[in-house]
Structures are given as C-alpha cells and as structure tokens.
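Lab meeting, action items carried over

1. Structure of the two-component assembly. Owner: GW. Status: complete.
Input record:
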Amino acid sequence: MAPAFGASSRKFNQLLESVVRIDVREVAFEAGARRYSASIGSGVILSEDGIVLTNAHVVSPRAVEVNVTLASLERVGARLIGWDHWTDLAVLRIDLDEVRRRGLKFEHAAFGDSNKLYPGQEVFAVGTPHGLTRTVTRGIISNNNRYFEDSRAVNGYETGAFNTWLQTDAAINPGNSGGPLVTGDGKVIGISSRGYLGANNLGFAIPAATARRVLEQLVSGGRIVRSYIGIVPGPLQDLENFYSLALNTGLLINSVDPGSPALKAGLRGGDIVLTIDGVKVDGRFPEQLPPIQNLIASKPVGLKVTLQIKRGAETRDYTMVTEKLESRVGEEWALEKWGVSVRKVSRAYARENQLDDETGVVVIGVQPGFPADVAGLSRSDIITKINQQPVTNLEVLKDAQAAYLAVPAPILLEAQRNRRVSLYILKP
Amino acid sequence: MIDLILPFRLWGASRRFYFAGFGLLVSALALAAPLARAATLPELWLERQKSVVAVEYVTETEADRRPTVTMGTVIDSIGTIILPSNAIDPRAATWQLKDFKVYAPGDVNGTPADYLGQDAYTGWHFVRVNESLRARLVPVTAFAPAGSGKAPALADFVWGIGLRTKDEDFAPYIMQSHLALIQSLPQRTGISQQEVAAPGLPVFDRDGAFVGLAASSFGQSYLQFAPGNRGAPVLLINVEESSAFILADEVLPYLQRIPKQVSGRPLAWLGAYGLEPMDRDVAKFLKLSSQSGAVVSEVLEGSPAEVAGLKARDIILAIDGKPLPQLKPDRVVVTYIEREVDRRAPGDSLTVSVLRGSERLELNVKLGDEPKLMREADRKYFDRIGFTAREFVYGDAVERRVKAGAQPGVIVHFVKASSPIAIAGLRQEDWIREIDGVEVHTFTEASAKLAEIERDEARAEVVLLVSRGGDTAVLRVKLK
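Predicted assembly:
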C-alpha cells in the first residue's frame, strides 16, 4: 500500500467535504473609474456555523460579492467577516439562512498542530487550482520555518513581518490560494498562500498556529489591531563580535522610521535591542525576526514599552508609547466624473515618502481624455489641495465633486510630484 | 509632433539647465572683412570654417579615462573657444577634466588647450587653445560686421557647418536650410526646416553674416516599423546636427562672460527649490490675464529666499516689477527665472513679487553665494575597500530632506565592481553615517579613518551604517 493511505481515510474524506471554491467579484479603483473583476480561490470551512478561512488576497474589503461552492457543488452566498493582509488571511461566513432554506449540508475541518511538523513529512494541498474544483495534490513539508516579508505582496499590501511560513512541494497553482494544507489524517496544518512562479513546486502556506490565532481574533473582533514602534530589524548574523555580544543575544535595528515612537525615543540604526519589556530577544537569523516583531505587535496600542538598548559600550533603557500599526495602503476611491482614482495618504505612506504630513491623496490612475488627464495629472502625484482647501480625507474630494456636479466650474488642484508642487485646473 | 529636448535631458539630473547658446565677441576684429562682393557659398564656407573647431578632452575617473569629442566656436583672436553647456557632464569635477585638445577642421593632431570654466548664465564652457593654432583660426565675430546680430526673417536661407568624426579628421561639411519659426525659449531661437549646423557651431545667412549659434537639437517623432511591430512611435534626436539656433542678438552681448575661475564662481544663489510652471488655465483661474507664474515647491534652509521671507507654495509673479512672460512650452518660464538669477552676482538684490493665498507680496532678496556644489566636493578613492568617498555638501542635505550642516558622514560617489564594498551591497549615492559604529563628522575625519582601515592589512572587516532613501542599514564589509 502506498504511504498516501491517508488520502483515502474517513477523516481525509471529511476534510474534502469541508473544502470550498470561492468566487469573488471585487471592485478596483483603477484608471479613474470603478472597475469590477472576478477571481477564483479556495477556502476551508472550520466550524459548524459556516466560518470559512481563506487568503486575504482572495477576499479583501474590495469584494462586492462572494460565493462559496460547497463540496456538494451547491453554491451559496458568503460575506467577509474580517481580513488581515499581514498574515494573508481572511474569514468569511457562509449565509446560513440560505443553507437552511435550501436544506444544504457541509462538513467542517479541524486544525492540526503546525508546530510539530518536520521537513519531509507528507502533506496534501486541496483547492481549486485554475478553477479545477477540489483538486488534491501531494507533497512534503520542504521547510517548516521559512521567512519572507514583502511590502506589497497581498494586492499591494504588506505581508509576512509577523509570521514564518511552511514551504511545501505539493503543487500549488493559482486558485489554490486559501485552500488547506493538510496531513494525511485530514488535519489543517496550513493555509496555502503562494508559490514561486516559474519554479518547480516551491509553495508556501501560513502555519495553522498563526491561522488559528488570527481566525479567533477576526471572528471575535472583525479585525486585528497591532502595535507599532517603528523599528526595522535586520539579522545580527556574523555581527556578534563587532557588537561584543554573547552568541544568540540581541536584535539589530537596521533602521528607525521617521516620525515613529522609536525615533522620538532616541533609537537609531545600528542600535542593538537586548530585551523588550524585560523579555530577552534573539534575532540572529532572519527566521527569528517575525516572532520578535510579533512580540511588539501584540502589545496593546498606546501603552509604554521599554527596550533595553546597547549602543557601543553603553547599555540603557528607552521607553516609548506604541502606536496602532497602519498599512501603507490607504482607502481608495474613484472620482469618476474627473477620471481620477485616488488613495488616501496613510501615516506609513507619508513617512516612507518623507511627506510633511498625511494630507493628500495619491493618484493611482487617470482615465485618458477625462478632466484630470487633460489637466496633466498622472499616477503617483499627490493631490494636496482642492480649491485651496487641504485634502485631509476622501470626503473633501467627494464633496468637491458633488459641488462640481451641481454647478460645473473650474476646480484648482494643488499636487506634488516627487517634491515639486504644481497647480492644475479641472475644466468642466 | 516636435519635442524640444533641452540639454539637461541629455545629462539627466543637472542642477541648472540652459538652452545651449553661443555668441560673438564685440571687438575691433568685428570690423574686419567687410563683404565687398557677393561671394559664392563655397567661398564663404571656406572662410567661415576657420571659426569652428572640434574639442577633445578626457574625463578621468577611478576606473577609466573617458574621451569626449565636442564642437566649439572661436570667439576671439587669443584662441578662446566656447562649447555648449552639455559638452561637459555637470557631475564631473573640474580636476577630472584633462587633456583638452583643439582640432581645426581637417587636423590630424590636436593642439593643447586650457579649460577656463563654465559661465552660469549662458551655460557655455570656455576653452583657450595654445598659441600655435591661433593663426589658423578666425573668430566668428569677424562675420558680424556691425558687431550686432542680424535677425533672419522667416523663410530666409540659412546655412552652417558640421564636422565629421575624429577618424575622418573632423572634415567640415556644409548644411543648408530655411528659417521655419522663431520661438522664445526664453532666448529667441530660430528653428529651420532641416538641420543647419552642429550644436555649438555658428549659423550664417546667404551673405555669410553670423545669424545665430546652433543649440541642442530637437527630438522628432518617427514611426518605427519592424516585424511584429507595426508602427511604434519613437523619438529620435540627432545629436550631431541641429535645426535650432539661438539668434545672434541673444549671443553677442554675452561673449565676454569668460569665467574668472575654472569653478565658474561666483555663482548667484536664490534657494527656491522646485520651481514649477503653470499653464494658461491656471493663470486664468488666478486672474493673471496675460502673464505667467511659477510655484515655489520648497524654500531651502538658510537660503537668501528664506531670509527674504519666501515660503513654500508661494507663486512667483514678477522679478524686479517685470511680470513673468507667458512662454511656450510652459516650463520655459522656469528657465527664465533661473536666468534672471544666474545673470546676477552674489550680493545683488532683486525684488520678487509673489502670490501667497490671495495676498500679493513684494520680497526683497539679496542673492547669496551658491553653496559648495557636488562637483566641487572633496573626494577620495579607497582602492582596497573599493569606493570613492565624497564630502557631504548642501545639495546632499536637500536631496535627502535633512537639515544642512552638522550632518555626519560621507557620500558614496563611486563603487568599484566586485570590490568588498560592492559585495556588501553598497551603492552609489549611499550615505555612510558611521564607520565601525562611530559617527564620522567631517570628510577629513572620515577619509582619515578609511585610509587607516585601508592600510591595515590584518583587518578582516569594517562595519558601516548606511542610509539610503530614508532607511538605514548596518553593512558588514569583509576585507578578507
């Protein structure tokens, strides 16, 4: 008998019955207009009451319609409960009224312990690659502690700073996203997330240990709040001697974000963090960074955190107040009459781009021939003022467009390109 | 479509940009050689080619010696030659420019020459050739009999000279065309139907009178057809021949601006950063009927503009009471302002009228001395570590949005390929803040420290704190 006997076990069959295909219609504010697109992903039902776990890059707040295809091939509606791009996870709830009304049935799966996985262990990926519903592929755990961080991998959002990933050679193709990675007994030990394009079977999944925690928080609160102090760590690897550190001690700060709590507290690049609120840290290797980042992120927002810092021969404590972690990607909208789509400048974006403050919106697209295009605006310009009024939020622009629709009159925009300020006129 | 390609485009980011132009020296010589009879074009050409030369020089860098050939026009009897502003890379330090040689058309061997520097206002570089060649040269002023420019009329016949390559001994050849258009860019510039002269060389009329100096060429749109590519638009720029020339009147009065120092100093400084033009719609909206304006993006720290009270987002409307003209393309107004500053000297005053919100203000600015430029910054090459350290100057602070003065560190000016520092990931324009965990405050301090590291054969590594685009990182450079 092949060692893949698990795939025919009763529990494995139950797992198969809990895997769903997810059809999403989502809106994008591209090129100055509202555009809708459809995509397919996978998910796994994890409770009797129809909680589905999938990827954040499958279902995000941009989704306007979500449908779930059950193992019975019946399709039901679902809605987004919450998402977390940092771990690339999203939680849906199946429309239970519809399920009851139509007398549908589904199974649900259970988590396994991803901390006990070992390289070489057999695993299966289940999902909807390229729309092929409930495809099972087989492989092994190639690495159980893979680090990668990406600042725009989840539809332009940051990901990977707070968790490591499972790597598998089970074939993961587009459409597998959000489907479970399971052991032979049908236990969910990961959520398939991504693969290297053009490589042979280098697939990655979010470990169940992370997924379980994120799921709980999203179900109870609809979102995950993390703390931020503004340090960018780097692996200490080979630098222990230079910093006169005992082996396996300390976290290197590569960079401190402008305007961040850490900067205000006096931290700077090249500092070594020895403890965080008394807890010793060891950031020698890249794989060790996410747990330390998570330690900071798990602190309550607005509370003091104390870092013991070694700088040269001196060691002392620095205390700072945590801020709420924000994405670089702000809220988006399309001012369709003017043919311009915009994204609010977030605090993180402003810091990254050395802007004076968070005033303004970034142009993410213009429609050829529309007033914004005619005026000369282009992608990545930052609109800071409209008719002399600072653009502090999207409402300012929406109101201005409403006024323009009522009484069309030329509109004066102030926008910044790189650091250059120009004026533009939107003509009726 | 015709796009105007200004010289700064060819060189990438340059602090200033000029529309290349040349001129004639008003001198006694100008009265020579009145044209007694109507000479034939070949006769005129034979005589006038004595006023053009090819100039070759070498830019010496850490890694190589790069020769450049450019064209110049002779402006006086003591061998002074002007070259277009883009003839020399603005990033090169003057001490890197070596071995200037001048070739008269047809010369096999060059005659040594000295580089005299660049004039900020005209943008011209000045070179003076050794005496041995001077007798064979005729200043172009000899062909401007009245000592002033003769403006050609639309559709007039115009002609000029081009020079072939060094391999062909810079053989001269003739180009001819007709004047198609005159534009203010902001200098009055003639545009002919076809290429009329090599950039930097004079243009003449039918009688052989000097009418202008060829500037950088225009880009022209073509469609490129290829298998699998049906008619993609491409912009072609002829860098050897130009159809644009700055009219003689915009050239003649400025020929005496020969730099007193090779650095081109003194340089007037305003300190209004990122001047942005406005289009006519914006001008109309702001009720500026027949004039233009320029938005000041930032006011530089400690600059004369700041002292005078100029603020970011002020709109400059007039200089010394003279409203900014509406020029086309719109961005020419920025050149107009820059030239207004550049033609003045440090210590000169000018009144800048600005619009701030709805308020109109008159600001009196006393121009300052341009802070040390990047090309003037100290540099030192460290071969073992594999890079050139450059002094952190004012412009570096502006680029990085940090406070000028009291900034520690040095800038990476050059990285040697496959050197220890290249392997560690350092790149050009990175800013080294700390060496071995210690802040380096001045260039002298940094280079002394780096020299000591370089000498120490036993040393296995050096650790740098490096800043790039607002982020910092600790880099370990393995020396063995």
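2. GW to write a short summary for the group page. Key points so far: The domain at 329-426 of chain A is CATH 2.30.42.10 (Pdz3 Domain). The CA atoms of residues 157 and 329 of chain A lie 6 Å apart.
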